[in-house]
Amino acid sequence: MLLEHVLGVPRAWLLAHDTDPLDPAACRRFEHLARLRRDGHPMAYLVGRREFMGHDFEVTPDVLIPRPETELLVETARECLRHRPRAAVLDLGTGSGAIAVSLALALPAAAVRATDASAAALAVARRNAERLGARVAFSQGDWYDALEPGQRFDLIVSNPPYVAAGDPHLSRGDLRFEPSAALTDGGDGLAALRAIIAGAPRWLAPGGSLWLEHGWDQAAAVRAGLAAAGFSGVASRRDLAGTERISGGSL
Ligand SMILES: C[S@@+](CC[C@H](N)C(=O)[O-])C[C@H]1O[C@@H](n2cnc3c(N)ncnc32)[C@H](O)[C@@H]1O
Question: Dihedral (C-alpha) 45, 47, 50, 54: value to the nearest 10 degrees?
């Protein structure tokens, strides 16, 4: 993959040219990337790309690398909106734009809004929307502060930071290289989820829904938070590994 990236060629080309000499600049670039990979840098950051929902997203160290588990949130959102193609949708904490852009591409008549606290992440998300031809309106701010008063959404989705501060996973694998603000709320892991749930009733249209991605052990807490905030039909859905990975409900 690194050699494909350095030379800008597909794998089939490499196989067909396996005895061609590498030019010295390409060789140096490959060796540099291979060293970073050996040091644990995520492949997605080294090649600057990650596939999500069948689309090729640019990723940089300013954004979380989109995870396959998050596709469950996008699929659930699509089901939720199957009779409302013109719905107003909000993605809070959009990162690379993976969720918002995938939804905008699947539902071209929907009005998709996406926010993030990070200007650097929003720059990546904007480039992804433009390159993939998705119509998404972006804005920066702390959760709902990025919105104009009076707006209403039929669906709010979010994959917020939900790892507790001090969780040993933060110092392992790819997570070591991802933005800390994308991973942890700096507290018990439920702070961002609580803030999003608490604010949602003000921004949802009557009958609107909220769906959230969360950690493997947070489903019961998120369901309780949703019920306490007045949501009905509260439920969780499991990912392919059988883990309760997303929870949501409707007003
Ligand atoms: C787990 S990442 C999710 C990124 C993307 N939605 C995805 O699923 O790949 C969480 C995102 O929330 C953003 N974020 C963290 N705290 C925030 C806040 N207080 N307000 C808005 N966005 C925030 C981070 O910058 C990050 O992009």
Answer: 170
Phi, psi at 160, each rounded to 5°: -85, 170
Instruction: Using the atom order of ligand 1, give the atom closest to the CA of residue 93.
Output: 12
d(CA 108, CA 106): 6
Secondary structure of residue 206 in the 3-state scheme? strand
- Contacts of residue 88, defined as CB under 8 A and 6 or more positions apart, other chains included, come to 110, 111, 113, 151, 152, 153, 154, 155, 205
pLDDT along the chain (251 residues), means of 10: 93 92 92 95 96 98 97 97 94 98 97 98 98 98 96 97 96 95 96 98 97 97 98 96 96 95
CA of 22 to the centre of ligand 1 (A): 40
Q: Report how far residue 101's alpha carbon sits from residue 91's, in angstroms, rounded to the nearest whole number.
A: 10
Q: How many CB atoms lie within 10 A of CB 84?
A: 15
Residue 59 CA to ligand 1 center (angstroms) comes to 14
Compute, in angstroms, the gap from residue 95 CA to the centroid of ligand 1: 5
Task: Please state, as a whole number, how many other Cβ atoms lie within 10 Å of the Cβ of residue 182.
Answer: 22
Whole-Å CA distances, 60 to 44, 191, 195: 8, 26, 27
List strand residue ranges (DSSP E) for the chain, in order.
49-52, 55-58, 88-92, 111-116, 136-140, 153-158, 204-213, 232-238, 244-250
